[in-house]
Each structure stands twice: as structure tokens, then as C-alpha cells.
Amino acid sequence: TTMATRGAMTPRCATSTHPSRIARSSRGARDAVRARARDEPTTDDVGRVKAALIRLCATTDGGKRATSSEREELERLVDELAAIGAREDVNLARVNGKWSLLATLASAEDAKTRKNKEGAIGSALTEISGSSGRVIDDSTSSMPSTSSSIPKLIASKGNYQDIDIDAGVAENRAEFAVFGKIPLTVRLKASCAISPNGTARLDVAFDAVEVSLGGAGPLAMSLAFVNPRGWIETTYVDDDIRTGKGDKGSI
């Protein structure tokens, strides 16, 4: 599961306060509005949290270069949005659409649980799709060094997710550039349905993987022998951002 975004649209919020109304009110009314505002986030509150979350995802390379403190801040911002989502009741109809992955976070324990559940092939597909997350080792805050003299033969160009709940289909898509110019695309085809165990949860079963390189392909392979399954629980969604948690612990 992911923090994802789609085309820039005006964010919506169920409740808002009006400064002009506050200015005309008595002190008691102002205090009442302020108290209500603490419980009911305004559009500005939502916009502030979203902007901070998107900015931190960008500066930490989708969580890949996050320190322990930055990871904690990412999780705190996700929790803030989740609290707003809980007040508004998540509308899964808004999950429909085309999404671009901003970040995926997972603890070392989450990663171990995921690999045990998915097995070697399922785990490899999760890594390719970008859904495995940046694993933070809480025992150290130092970041691994990389050598700029080592060429990256395959560079990630983005991770995407298309969801159509009405049609019962979903797709995770990872795009790469080989040698800096040859396009490589990996698609994980899935079926999805609203889970009976939670109104904000989608059950997902991955059916096939397709690989295209340059103008060749796609080369398709069924995943029936692996039967990878899981669920995604959306904790917040509006017109342009979505956050959620998965059955294997990732955010």
C-alpha cells in the first residue's frame, strides 16, 4: 500500500470554518468556533498536512533516503490524514482512478513478515512494483553510501497504480529506463473487490505479470501458481491524494 497522488485538483473537506464569521462573533462564540475547529479540520488544515507530506516524500526520495526522524514525521503526517479520514468516513468511490506512487514505508519487521507471506517470487514482484517500501533500521540513523562511479544500468522512472472497483480490476505498473533510454515496463494485473471485513478495505489478488522491453512484448506469465493475495485499507482519500495500510504492515 501506498501514499499516492493523482492530477492536481481542489482538495475537499467535510467541514470548514469562516474567519469573517469569527470576526463578527462575540468572544464566547469565537471560543466555540475554535473548539469546534480543533475537532473538525478545515480545508486549510488538510492542505497544510498534505503539502507537508508531499514535500517530505519528495525530499526523502519517496522514503528511500529517510532518516529515522524523517520516517517518524512521515508516519505522523499519515496518521493526521487518517484521523481526518476517520471523521469524514472514507469514500472508496474516490479510490477509482490512476495514481502515482509517492512513497511506501515499511519497518524491518514488516519486511520480514511480507517476505515470509509472499515467498521468493511474490516478494520479488513486490520489490519491482515499488510496494516493498524503504526499510529503516532503527538501530542506526546513518545512511548507506553509494558510489557515483558505478553506473545504474536500470533507473526507475516511476510506480503507478490504476484501480477500477466497479470493473473489479487493478494494475500496479513500474516503469524503468535501461541504459538510460530503453523503456522497460512491468505490469502486475490484479482483481479487486471491496472486503466484507471493512468498508474502506479492498481485497486484491494478483493474477498475472507482463513485461515489455523497448518495442518488444509484452511477455505475460500467470501468477496462479503463486496466488499472491492481500488487502489495502485506505485511511484517507480525496481528489488528489490517497494514503493506506496493507495486510503486511506497509504504509
- Number of H- or I-type helical stretches: 5
Distance from first to last alpha carbon: 6 Å
Instruction: Tell me roughly what share of residues is in helical segments.
Output: 25-40%
**Whole-number average pLDDT?**
76
Low-confidence sequence ranges: 8-37, 133-151
The fraction of residues in strands falls at 25-35%
- The order of strands across the largest sheet is 1-2-5-6-7-8-10-11
Class by helix and strand content? alpha+beta
Tell me the major beta sheet.
8 strands, antiparallel, barrel
Shape: globular
Q: Please compute the radius of gyration using only Cα atoms.
A: 20 Å
Count the beta strands: 11
- The SSE string, one letter per element, is EHHHHEEHEEEEEEEE
Protein name: Plastid lipid-associated protein/fibrillin conserved domain-containing protein
Main location: plastid
Subcellular location: Plastid
Region (Disordered): 1-44
